[in-house]
Design brief:
559 residues, 12-stranded parallel beta sheet, elongated, Pectate Lyase C-like, 14-stranded parallel beta sheet
């Protein structure tokens, strides 16, 4: 097993603990009292809802006695149970929870713990959080729900009017996996598939389809009610994070695909992140932009982020990083490692914006951009920078084209002038900057023509951006590896609507272990599982290391 596979195994390890031999399966038929069944369920029980039954209301997962044994809330499922990431078609025969109002269809009571939610369809419309794990009001860690798994669920807003938020992740030790989360959209507010701002983590977001009009995935965006809280130990892996291209002809408030405003120790790994255009913001797909959103979170910070092995494509801009909040006091963004990613179709001609792969503002520090393959058309440049000098900047082993300006800082010429002014003592070497003037950049980089650039790839014209076997960029990196990204990119596809039945993506059979079922009565005490959130261990092994145009100031938020 690879190191990454071991890390995920750690994240999803089963903790086995004693449960009552009296654990039971409680069947709730259509028209039955689901809330009473949840109240009466004991640790170790399974609450099973009749297949295809519709439960309309606002249901709450209560806090039980302090037991590590899991209560499972699930649909009865005829035939085989879907493995890996589900689609709406898989959910057709499942039980359905429907919110009739602007309250969650399903939420947690303060301190609720050791629940597993699986094989359910959850839906609603308007300004609701469809699935609310924790709350904005909780002000003490003792009130935070914890040890919760959401696996293989179809969670969605109304196709016509949407819903503001599909999953509110204000909990601890929580996994969302193998689910299909869609139609999280709003014309007037930021809407998200998953957003968390008042829970400490750790969190695992694994192998889902995630669709949101504002920010598909957001951490921060509202000030936490718990003092000094920074959501931390977050793994976002193997997901398809996308907006339907058809939304461009509609009026949803579109901003970005993934944003961190208050987060620490984050691994964003092996995702496909696609389809973002200039609309309510300038069109950058991924934002690491620290925000003291409401002025009461001076401790807010974005730090220790690894963005590795992802495919980011079909967007107006790539990745934007903000050093400090420009409106309220905040901590400094630092230690961001962007490595081994494919960025393609970053094209202002198609998506608006400037087409820069990177935008650095406000003086973050310790930023490493290493081994990325960047394919831009009609772009103004590779990297734009404004604000104070950035200490600890490293840019190595990347493959890109100059565009109009290459590496360009405010009020500076491209290349060496910008590097001297904004990146003191930086390491900028072994990068391919096609069509650039070698005299404008540090020695040790490569400056092929556009034709030579295209010839280095397996099949540039068909979107296969892996290096050709005869490429001179093979083993030419500072570390002896090939230049550009070395991970396998997602399969090339044109911009399209990845719904309603998105196919299985790479890694879509990554599954969390199911909760163990009870032994027959009389065989003694049984043991049930709950996921141990060993995120700190997993993230440490990812080696998120510390290394020595205009920008959009419109602030989106959760509340």
């Amino acid at each position: 097993m690879t190191k990454t596979g071991i890390n995920i195994a750690l994240l999803a390890a089963m903790h086995v603990s004693a449960a009552s031999a009296a654990a039971a399966t409680v069947h709730v038929r259509a028209g039955g009292d689901l809330q009473m069944a949840l109240v009466n369920a004991r640790p170790g029980d399974v609450v099973e809802l009749e297949a295809e039954a519709i439960f309309t209301g606002n249901y709450t997962l209560p806090r039980k006695e302090d037991s590590p044994n899991v209560i499972v809330l699930k649909s009865a499922a005829a035939g085989g149970v879907a493995l890996g990431r589900i689609t709406p078609a898989n959910a057709a025969a499942w039980a359905k929870l429907v919110s009739p109002n602007n309250l969650p269809a399903l939420q947690t009571a303060p301190g609720a713990h050791h629940w597993r939610i699986e094989l359910l369809e959850i839906s609603g419309r308007g300004t609701a959080d469809l699935l609310a794990l924790g709350s904005s009001e909780q002000s003490a860690l003792s009130s935070v729900p914890h040890d919760i798994v959401v696996d293989r669920c179809y969670i969605h807003g109304d196709a016509t009017v949407g819903v503001r938020r599909c999953v509110a992740l204000n909990s601890a030790s929580t996994i969302v996996s193998n689910s299909y989360i869609s139609d999280c959209k709003s014309e007037n507010d930021d809407a998200q598939a998953i957003a968390g701002w008042n829970g400490p983590g750790p969190f695992v977001i694994l192998n889902n389809y995630l669709e949101g009009s504002g920010e598909n995935v957001l951490f921060g965006g509202a000030d936490p009610a718990i003092a000094n809280l920074v959501p931390a130990d977050i793994t976002i892996r193997g997901n398809l994070i996308a907006k339907p291209v058809s939304w461009r002809a509609e009026s949803w408030q579109v901003k970005n695909l993934l944003e961190l405003k208050n987060a620490r120790r984050v691994a964003i790994q092996s995702n496909t992140i696609e389809n973002n255009w200039e609309a309510a913001q300038s069109g950058y797909a991924v934002l690491f932009t620290v925000r003291n959103q409401d002025g009461h979170c001076p401790w807010c910070q974005v730090e220790q982020v690894g963005f590795t092995g992802n495919t980011l494509r079909h967007a107006a801009g790539g990745i934007e990083i903000l050093g400090t909040d420009d409106s309220e006091p905040s901590q400094q963004t630092r230690t961001i490692n962007i490595r081994d990613n494919f960025l393609s179709d970053i094209d202002p001609g198609t998506w608006g914006g400037s087409g820069y792969a990177f935008l650095l503002l406000g003086g973050p520090r310790d930023i490493a951009i290493d081994h990325n393959t960047i394919i831009q058309d009609n772009a103004e440049g590779i990297l734009q920078v404004e604000g104070p000098p950035i200490l600890g900047f490293v840019m190595t082993n990347n493959v890109a084209r100059q565009g109009s300006y290459g590496i360009k800082g405010a009020d500076q010429a491209s290349g060496n002038d910008t590097i001297t002014a904004f990146f003191p003592a930086a390491l900028v070497t072994r990068n391919v900057i096609a069509d650039a003037d070698a005299q404008q950049y540090p020695s040790g980089n490569f400056f092929p023509s556009d034709a030579d650039f295209r010839a280095q790839f397996a099949s540039f014209d068909t979107g296969n951006y892996q290096l050709a076997s005869q490429s001179s960029w093979r083993r030419a990196g500072t570390d002896g590896l090939d230049l550009g990204a070395t991970a396998a990119p997602a399969k090339p596809t044109p911009p399209r609507d990845p719904r309603p039945d998105v196919g299985a993506a790479s890694g879509s059979n990554l599954r969390l272990p199911l909760v163990a079922r009870s032994r027959p009565k009389g065989q003694g005490r049984v043991r049930r599982g709950m996921v141990l959130m060993a995120v700190g261990v997993g993230l440490a092994a990812l080696a998120v290391f510390r290394v020595a145009g205009s920008w959009d100031r419109r602030r989106g938020g959760c509340e």
